Amino acid sequence: MDNATTTGDREVLAPASHRGSNQRGMRAYNERLVLSLVRRHGSLAKTDIARMTGLSAQTVSVIMRGLEKDRLLVRGEPLRGRVGQPSVPLSLNPTGAYFFGLKIGRRSAEMALVDFLGRVQATTSRGYAYPLPSETIAFAKDSIAELSASLGKKKSRIAGLGIAIPFQMWNWAEETGAPAADLDTWRTVDVRAEIAAFCRWPVYLQNDATAACGAELAFGRHSGLQDFVYFFVGTFVGGGIVLNGNLYAGRTGNAGALGTTPVPGPDGVTVQLLDQASLVVLERTLRAAGIDPTPLWTADGDWSAFGDHVEVWLDNAAAGLAHAIVASASVIDFEAAVIDGILPPDIRTRLIGCIGDAMQHLDLDGIEAPKLLEGTIGPTARALGGAAMPLFDRYLIDQHALMRAS
């Protein structure tokens, strides 16, 4: 794929229109447009691509032959039974490209190796009481070596690594019980640059909750949603925003920092949403009751031993999330509010039910309440969101343009 410029170690596609173009200078954009449409529809024939994009049949043939040669598209079985020559559908080649997604969390780090279809091929993880830069960077280096080696000759298809990390890690010492001096070391560390120094591929970085929202957009099963607000319930609750089918990160990359939304606390005093709907709140309660909170931080954790503490947390978290959703909807007319997190599926379902109940008691005059939807990624959303960064940057176009072409 050509016609890209380079800024630092990140490729940036030259600006282009929202429709396909037969001009030679637009070849890179047209390739991305074709890949995006095929990704959206699963498989498409050349005639379908020409109809959707307005490109000539000859131009589409040239583009698709090039993408086949680059092993990004593969041919399916010819579709017979129509007038004329049978059409041959093309689909994304799962092994056409691979991506690393690194999640640096407040309780654990995870590295995922993801294929061109967004399927996780392998993962590594490491738990800790709190993250230290040196240990986290060492984990990333070891994981890159291990996971890339697992691909054998296919490691030449690796296209990039995305890092999903909470911004301003040093501000969370009190909440996580970590020594302030240890977390303060993050102030002087450029983790993207440190990893880029030994990583052979382009390295990207994004706020972890925004990245999780990007994973839902890229790999989730809520196709067609153009505007939604997203909440990820983890150690601390965070969020993201999708507008016109695109992840909106904002001026500083921190748009959708929904954890700081002011909400009424259980005693009526205003608190931030993260003080009410975060798992660290439940962890403190469990520790005070002498209950081991470890299952909170495992993907298949069993919460059955937590008893009524879960019910209290669900009610308080739902009340806070309901206020945050309504406040968000008063600013932007979101179609949906998507709720995900490192929650067992049954807990996530119950949380959404509680949010729906809480919203019924709020004043919604003049506000069209968004529908409530469960996230479809789950605990791996932040790592997958990391992997989505190089996928979108190197191979796809914005989803709003895609919807118009479709």
Low-confidence stretches: 2-18
CATH class of the largest domain: Alpha Beta
Number of domains: 3
What is the element string, with H for helices and E for strands? EEHHHEEEEEHEHHHEHEEEEEHHHEHEHH
CATH superfamily of the largest domain: ATPase, nucleotide binding domain
CATH architecture of the largest domain: 2-Layer Sandwich
Structural class: alpha/beta
Terminal CA distance reads 22 Å
Strand content: 15-25%
Strand order of the largest sheet: 7-6-5-8-9
| Largest beta-sheet details | 5 strands, mixed
Number of H- or I-type helical stretches: 14
CATH topology of the largest domain: Nucleotidyltransferase, domain 5
Mass-distribution shape: globular
Mean of all residue-level pLDDT scores: 89
Instruction: State the helical fraction.
Output: 25-40%
Counted beta strands: 16
Rg calc: 22 Å
Provide key terms for this protein.
single chain; 406 residues; alpha/beta; Arc Repressor Mutant, subunit A; Nucleotidyltransferase, domain 5; 5-stranded mixed beta sheet; 14 helices; 16 strands; globular
